[in-house]
PH domain-containing protein
Amino acid sequence: MSAEAVVVRPRKVRRVAIPIAILLIVVFALVGTLLRNTPTGVVFNLSDQIAMGVLGLLLASGVMLLTRPRLRADADGLEIRNIIGTQRIPWQLVQGVTFPDGAPWARVELPEDEYVPIMAVQATDGDHAVTAMRSLRELRRTIDA
């Protein structure tokens, strides 16, 4: 039984996060470069300037974590990568794939009222999220058949 894999990544969050990360790096590098001695008597050293650049990189890295979510589904199961951590869930454990009303992202329903959020399928993506859910459900139907 051959089923085509489904791979989904969020779209809108990537379009927002990447420019923000770039802006943070540029702003903090610029501030670090322009950081000099002031007429108030405050003295900024080279280490302070470097620290500003590093702070910009750290903040940009934090913003880029928002682009990390991904969903891979194939005949063996689901691989859900959220902001922190990746889980592999076999289809035998999946009781359903839902998108509750008002929820920011989809989720996989598991036994005993547990669930795993699928941050790769976000409500803000609109039609892309609808297409992803349809593809995922079609894959499951193909596997169950």
User: Anything to note?
Assistant: The chain has three helices and seven strands.
